[in-house]
Design the sequence.
């Protein structure tokens, strides 16, 4: 009986001691394992499924790069933030490129609408180019996400291969392509259509204003200030202080007045076959 009791106690003690151990085992079993960095990038899938493709050529990683890129990430922004970025591009190029170039043709204080529309045309072209660049990047990654097989290069163009996606990878990529990339492409297409419409309207309005403001010579902007004018048999005069082309050859004040009336644009002296904006050289006077 003593041997039996000792044996019973020897069996009972481990049973009581197993409680904390079992609880620890169950807690470990129920705990969710932490995902590795690769698994997080792969959407929770085993990275071994795409081990044949270099990491930087996997569509899911390329999508993550788009979202982190300083320019391409604009496509994933909320509508308000996205439009603010494009407005910033427009304002920058209008202020430093479009506006100064338009100033060479139109006087901002005398022809403000023409000057504004001309500068806007150039700035809108730059905005459209930026949107097209973003669209091409998202379209490329979207095609790779939605395709069942994607090409990749192991070390260069000369050893290109084709990777057929396993079912799990294909399902994940198509979900990303449908719910993340397609809405971005739709927004970018709307932007392109809208900017094209605005650019067309601005161009037509500017053309109409130029046509309406052109003088009889077809000049507009700064050059259109050359009115009134006198059409003579041997040339054209624009200054009311000059009555005959011969005055330009002998009177410096008349030549200066004519040059000022022409807006700095030389006029033709048909009789002498030369251009006069001031007193002519001695050989012309002879």
Sequence:
């Amino acid at each position: 009986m003593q041997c039996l009791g000792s044996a019973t106690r020897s069996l009972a003690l481990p049973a009581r001691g197993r409680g904390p151990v079992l609880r620890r085992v169950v807690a470990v079993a129920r705990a969710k394992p932490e995902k590795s960095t690769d698994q997080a990038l792969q959407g929770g899938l085993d990275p071994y499924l795409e081990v044949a493709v270099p990491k930087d050529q996997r569509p899911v990683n390329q999508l993550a790069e788009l979202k982190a890129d300083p320019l391409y990430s604009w496509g994933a922004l909320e509508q308000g933030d996205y439009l603010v970025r494009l407005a910033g591009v427009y304002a920058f190029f209008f202020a430093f490129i479009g506006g100064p170039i338009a100033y060479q043709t139109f006087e901002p204080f005398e022809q403000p609408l023409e000057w504004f529309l001309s500068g806007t045309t150039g700035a809108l072209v730059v905005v459209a180019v930026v949107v097209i660049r973003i669209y091409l990047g998202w379209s490329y990654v979207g095609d790779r996400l939605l395709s069942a097989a994607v090409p990749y290069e192991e070390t260069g163009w000369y050893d290109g291969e084709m990777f057929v996606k396993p079912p799990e990878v294909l399902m994940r990529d198509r979900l990303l392509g449908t719910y993340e990339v397609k809405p971005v492409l739709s927004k970018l297409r709307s932007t392109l259509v809208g900017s094209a419409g605005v650019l067309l309207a601005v161009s037509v309005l500017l053309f109409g204003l130029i046509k309406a403001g052109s003088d009889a010579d077809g000049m507009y902007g700064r050059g259109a200030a050359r009115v009134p004018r006198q059409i003579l048999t041997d040339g054209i005069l624009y200054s009311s202080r000059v009555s005959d082309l011969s005055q330009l050859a002998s009177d410096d004040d008349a030549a200066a007045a004519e040059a000022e009336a022409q807006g700095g644009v030389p006029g033709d002296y048909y009789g002498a076959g030369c251009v006069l904006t001031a007193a002519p050289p001695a050989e012309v006077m002879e």
About this structure: The longest strand covers residues 149-153.
